[in-house]
Amino acid sequence: MSSQRDVKDRIDSVKNIRQITRAMEMVAAARLRRAEQRIQALRPYADALRRMTRQAAEAADNVPNIPILSERDDQHTVGLLLVTGDRGLAGAFNSQILRAGTRAAAEDEAEGRSVVWYASGRRGVSSLTFRGLDVAGAYTGFTDRPSYADARHIAEDLVTAYVDDKIDRVEIFYNGYISPLVQEVRRETLLPLQEATILEGDEDEDDDDRDRDDSGHHALVEYEPGPEEILQRLVPDYVEISIYRALLESTASEHGARMTAMRNASQNAGEVIDDLTLEMNRARQAEITQEIMEVVAGAEALV
Length: 303
Prior knowledge:
The chain is α/β, with parallel strands linked by helices. It has 2 domains: 4-25 and 260-302, Orthogonal Bundle (Helix Hairpins), CATH 1.10.287.80; 31-259, 3-Layer(aba) Sandwich (Pyruvate Kinase, Chain: A, domain 1). It is built from 6 helices and 5 strands; from the N terminus they run αβαβαβαββαα. It has helices spanning 4-59, 93-110, 122-130, 148-163, 203-207, 227-302, and strands spanning 77-83, 114-120, 135-139, 169-179, 182-191. The chain has a 5-stranded mixed beta sheet, with helices on both faces. Helix 2 links the parallel strand 1 (77-83) and strand 2. Helix 1 (4-59) runs antiparallel to helix 6 (227-302) and helix 4 (148-163) crosses helix 6. It is elongated.
């Protein structure tokens, strides 16, 4: 059994760790509130832009024959963008994105397609590099507070690679923010537009799309210039805003995951302290019992 001093030192050490985890939990909670506000401010604009892009794509008779909107007959190379964080101590936040990305890459390679990796966040970049994978685009240093310029930089690299025929499809993996306790891994297709997740729509948007003519197009919408030219202008913005939204969702998810992980760590530290306190009391009781036995034995020897 450990001595009282050893157990007391361990208790003090665990208490210090609990102070750190509590402080990190408070910091994550404060940053989470700011991240939630940024998401709430962006979502209406992002939803409107995605809806406009989808409506323009539906109204266009033919998707314009321009590089950014051209669809490859055969897709040989897929670009995968993994959105992770710069730091750890956030539970399974980073690892679940890496697992989803590597699983998708295995599926693509099994079908004869090669994979080009892009990663946002030091954790994603370092993990892919450690596995011996070549990262074509590494973007770090801004995951705590991403800006639109960061999303534009990533989008430019992806669009350029797509236009230059280096990749035939672009997919993004990120943690979608639902609540501080719940984050879900989302997989979205950005390019080509014909396969993009944006064209799938959702029930809320379908409720707003009731005024249609027999052709399925919006009867009250007139495009000037034509929907093809408008679509050509909207697609780059759609890619940028989709990446920016993913970055903000990932940031909020990271803070929520870290807050939860630090709270659990603090609770576990409290349980360890209770166990060590019980062990220290047992050690003290054993020492007292030993001293009493020695005193009794000495008294009996004198009789």
